[in-house]
Amino acid sequence: MGVESVLERLRAINVEERLGEPGKPSDVEAVEEWKRGGVKFAASTGRLEEVYYHALRKLLDCIVPTWDRGPILHEGGVYRGCWLESTGTINAELLSRFLPSVSGRTYEAFADGQREDGLIPYKITEAGPVFRQIQLVTPLARSVWNHYQLNGRPSDFLRKMMTALARFDQWLADWRNTRGSGCVEAFCAFDTGHDLSPRFWHIPDTPHQGDPKQYDPASPLLPLLAPDMTSHTYCQRLYLARMAEELGDSEQAERWRAKAKETLDSLFRHCYDGGDQFFYDVDQSGAFIRVQSDVLLRVLACEVGDDAFFQEALKGYLLNTRKFFAKYPFTAVAMDDPRFDPFSSYNSWAGPSNFLAIIRAPHAFEHHGRYVELTWVLQPIVSAMARMERFPQVLSPWTGAEGYTEAYSPAILGVLDFVERLCGIVPRPEGNLWFNGLLPYPLDHGEEVAGETGYSRTVDGAEFELAVTREEALVCRNGRELIRFPFGIRVVTDRSGELVEVAGLLHAPVSGEVVYQGRRFPVSAGPNEVLAFKEGRFISVRSPGAVAPVF
Fold this sequence. Notes:
single chain, 7-stranded antiparallel sheet, 6-stranded antiparallel sheet, 26 strands, about 20% strand, MGH1-like glycoside hydrolase domain-containing protein
């Protein structure tokens, strides 16, 4: 098939027919919103297209009228409710690109459920907010900011969420800094959502007497200075500064930036081992709890460290096949740790590849412009996705086989997100559109995953389409050709389709022509190289190369 044939297949898809009859009244509203967004995916062969629409059907099951706040996103599977560490942050952040009204209600439910003392619930169920632990990973402020940027910049929403988050920040300062270190403390395993992780062996799963202000006074380890919770607060404060600036309060923004710096200094002073180049929990005696877990990826996803720091983390850990870079990455514990447990038949953060870690990873890579290295994560996971039938919480890091539970929204949204990041159209918070000129690669037994692909999305009333083959990619706007470009690069435009830049997505250099506005422009992009389009030519503005996997 050529790009034109791919477009024909894409245009023939009827989303409502693929979804079937609505399962509940709120599904009708969700499907209508999806249709307004114009998102469709087509593949010439393989199972990925079928899995994609199966995922969309299952996503509707995870959108449930809850409490008295209307339909919000639920975790899915055995998890009945909306968890702050996942559903209410990274899951809803991905959903913002597809069903923004559901994401908005999900975020606001946490603000509406806030306790008088400032504590935000760790989950929301059909009965209302629950406060037993705090369960922090992805910063809610980042998710809220990205939602605000993507969806019309509603100032009332931003102000409401900023007020709630500022009160929550004060609660953490008052109750989770008992040792005066400036770090945020974990009182139990569930504070970080790290069920069964060896970092919390011999530590209770829940706070003392079910009170998030207390830890077990008989524990020889608690409270822990927790690097993931501390980096969460650092990043949260950075985004609160952006919110304050956006709402016209530069003095408050500066105070948030100063607080963020204090938190970052505390993180490195107490939790970072320069010899290992790793972040560890610190027990009450001041000793590191030397378990190398996905805490590192969590810290990096909170925008800790510069490009050079991230590059060293890639070499030492994230792309190291003795550490976290399994055949189907990322493992929850380093594979060379004797406590590593690869079994995926139960809820475990002791080893298997968890979908929450998988969907949290792209922000860390993209924040540092490591687009090529990210594809080495996307490709094997998409191959595993093409075989999925249940949408589990965990995958086997060895085989990619489905593990514990089913209809799990992080896995479901992972399918939608990873398809878009490989071969779809991604609207970005900064106001650009990414047209990704890659295809899923047949990594597993040579079985075709998708062949050639088509993708569409409506942006500001204009319909954009993207068709990708192994030779080239074609972008159309409202049915008319806009841009042609070589396979293996990303084209970046503004929201109207005006060409801004391109980026190299392959380890090998990509050369060819970009056809735009009836003219041909030669282009050659190295790995991760970004070339700005200025005055009719491409100019390299960044060329860091790529970091190869380590064995």
